[in-house]
Amino acid sequence: MQERIRKLHHNRIFALVFWLVVVFAAIVTLPNVNTIIQYDGQPQLANTSQPVKASQVRNHWGRNLDGTYTVNAVFNNPAGKLTNKQLAAINKTTSSLQKKSTYYGIQKITTITNTPTSRPQLLSKDQSTEIVQLAVSHNQGPVRDIAKQLKNEIATVGLETYVTSPEIVSDAANEHIASFTLIVILMTLLIALVAMGILFASIIAPIITFLAILISYISTLSLATNLAYHWNFAYSEYTPIFLLLGISLFTLLTSFWFFRDLRNLVDEGTDSQAATTQVIHNLGYRILISTLSLTLAFGSLMLFKFSSIRALGILGVGFAITGLASVTLIPVFAGMLGNSLFWPKKTRPQLADHKLWRQLARFGLWQPWIAVIVVLYFAGVGLFGGTQSHLNYNNAQDIPNNQAVQGARVLSAHFGQGKATPVTLYLQTKQRLDNQDQLYQLDNLTKKLRAQPGVAAVTSVTQPGGQPVTQYYVSRQLNGVTTSLSGAMGQLQSIRNAIKADQNGLKQKDLKAEVKRLDKLSTKTDKLVSQSSRLQSALSSVQSNTSTSSSSSKAARRYIRQLNRINTDLNTASTTLTNLAAAVGATSSDVSTVQSNLSTYQESIKAVNSSLGQTRKQVQKLNTSINKIYTYLGGLQNSEAAKSLYLTPTQLASGDFQQSLVNFTDAKVKTTYLTITLKQEPNAKTTTKTLQSLKQVATSQLRGTSLKDATLTFSGQPVVTSTLQEQFQHDLPRVLLLVFGITLLLLVIFSRSLLQTSYWFLTFLASAAASYQLTRLIMQWLTGNSQFNWQVPLLAFVPLTVLAVVELTQLALSYRLNEAPLLDWLLPGIHEVGQTMRHSLFIVIAGVLGLLAAESQVLTAVTLITVLTAIIFNIMLPLMASSFGKLSVVIPAQKPYQFHWPTRKSAAKRPSRRSWRRHHTDESTDHPKDDQK
């Protein structure tokens, strides 16, 4: 039994079983990678960041809007202005959507019909595009599924329709990355397989390498996804790709070292198991220090709070697993197969002597200062070009033909660039916001923010359409007051004129004349009454006389008949006169009464006339005062003070304003929000400065007001972009310093030389900086865009670090294990290392070519940076190593006077360059190597 166990151990079967168990457990427990990318792929902002605080405010908003996000349903007529028929079709579509709101999780629909005050924000100025805003619950389902369903639901004949929002665009970016992740993985593995086949002219060796890469990758990916799924560990949308990139490159390089040494030993006749053990012994230290360097360098990134950088920390574990697999898994198959590992070509190919590094090293030893100038030039180009100023933080740049991105572009074209990505300012206070004092301060804040550079429009509870509501302002109200005052002044002038006319009609002289005429009339009436009495007596006397003489002659009788008729007429006249006398008497009495009344009225008229005179003077004074008030109010109306908000109780209770309160405040009316539309879409140059200006303005505007204690929280895609930019720019220099510092420190420890290792590492940094700028120029020529996505430096950081560690570790070990002086080691040592560097260069270039399988500018840029860095570094490293190595020996050995410009006499006495070089070379051989370091 012990013998069997010993054989199993000798054949490394236990290691194979261990890796089979590990990979089986990794596959079984591996969560859905696409789901992890969808939900955890976006950068995770700190809980203290503004966007996270804003989401917490929104989650407790009330009005059935808790946990919702805004989606824009865009209706566009590419032919021009929306027709009445098309507007009716949009209303019909919206009504249908309202009926299915429960199914789609729509909590609120805002249109130009139900919210006319927001019409300027929902209908473009050219009237070709209309927006219907939907408040959709996060609990309804995945964003991409809701977007697809809504896109189908809002389809309207004759119109182009889109469903877009910053959340949908970000999810589309994740979906796009997930779509090509599998392709990149397969192509990278395939190219790795082909590369190893080319190097060893074998089929079996590439398969073993492929298995080692696959097992290490699946184990690390499963660990990373499970940490993200169960413990909310940082995860990036590019995590599967950079894990594969780092693990495949490191596995290819270590496998190449292993198989190369193994073939040398096997060809010499060594037993396969013994050869395997010997290779492990020879390469163990090199693989150990490379693995340790990469593990510590990337593992240290877990100390950062920024999730996209912290996600890179899992690579430290990945490199540890890869290093362990290189010395345990690959030897299992190497010991089993032996020389069969290199089937079908069993004879080792003859390797030509690679002299490029030797020639470059010779040039560096011949003209060291020229080499120094070259490296300083490349370093200057990289530093002068910078990195952060050429980065953008827009996820939509790399998404091809997505309807959400197209919808955002339509909004930018018809409403302004910042329409698709507005900024939301939440204002929380302990006071209710439905009174004049608070609303006045909110309106002032709205106007102040709109006046800032880079701001296109601001909507708020007092300005729901992005423009002031005229009837809410003092100027409009003063206009009505001044109009009323103008009418009152006209009426007062009319009253004044009427009083004047009445006063003129009540003159005392005319009244006295009328009284005199009435007195004359009364006297004449008295005489008439007296005469009427005498006439009646005479008539009575005539009647008596007529009766006495009735018996006279016939002539007399005829006369009597005539007299009788006359008597009858006189009797009638007498009766009439009697009545007239009675009437005249009554008239005389009435005239007396009238005369008395007129006298009394005359006295009253005097009092009235005096009163009217005083009233006229008061009306004139009142008219003058009102005229002054009118002039004052007219000036006030044209002043800045009249532009202030003032809502009357009637306006506060109006339907339009109550609708604004519902739209812009929470259920408690103690939190409101302002929507700020910027003039430009989020970018690295202006967005952060604009947001900082808005924060300062908002804080200073509320200082000293009733809202001075209000809490301000900014959110929106520009705020997220700015937060990412600030965190990335803050952490990137620290990442570079930490990782490269750890790498340099370990190289110094392994090589036991601070100066030479620093020169080599400086060469690597200059190569990387130069390749970065060259890639930027190439991408500008290819795509017309000179800005990299902010993920490019992080992704390129992985293969570049592997390249630096692998090549510099080999150079450092060669330098340490050589006992010759530095100048004696430079040429042969660099030449020896250069014999395998061409293979490393080939492996690094082949390892990143799989990234080109994805139609992604990000991965294309990473590929170009890696390839150019590998080429430039392999050209500059032998040049710089020899140049700096010689100068580090020659310069300290020179005497001070030899740095002065020689005179003719001294020049004649100076030795020739060849004899001087020979002299110092002989002196340098007398110094031990440790002193030269």
Describe the structure.
This protein is an alpha+beta fold. The protein folds into five domains: about 210 residues, Multidrug efflux transporter AcrB transmembrane fold; about 100 residues, Multidrug efflux transporter AcrB pore domain (Alpha-Beta Plaits), CATH 3.30.70.1430; about 210 residues, Multidrug efflux transporter AcrB transmembrane fold; about 110 residues, Alpha-Beta Plaits (2-Layer Sandwich), CATH 3.30.70; about 170 residues. It contains 32 helices and ten strands. The chain has a four-stranded antiparallel β-sheet, sandwiched between helices. The chain is elongated and about 190 Å long. The relative contact order is 0.11. The C terminus is likely disordered.
Provide key terms for this protein:
933 residues, alpha+beta, Multidrug efflux transporter AcrB transmembrane fold, Alpha-Beta Plaits, 5 domains, four-stranded antiparallel sheet, 32 helices, 10 strands, 70% helix, 6% strand, Mycobact_MmpL, transmembrane, transmembrane helix
Helix content: 55-70%
Broad structural category: alpha+beta
With helices defined by DSSP (H or I, 4 residues minimum), what is the helix count? Answer: 32
The whole-angstrom Rg is 53 Å
Strand segment tally: 10
- Kindly report how far apart the N and C termini lie: 55 Å
CATH topology of the largest domain: Multidrug efflux transporter AcrB transmembrane fold
Query: Strand order within the widest sheet?
Result: 2-3-1-4
Provide the CATH superfamily of the largest domain: Multidrug efflux transporter AcrB transmembrane domain
Number of domains: 5
InterPro entries: MMPL_dom, Mycobact_MmpL
Main location: membrane
Membrane topology: Multi-pass membrane protein
Keywords: Cell membrane, Membrane, Transmembrane, Transmembrane helix
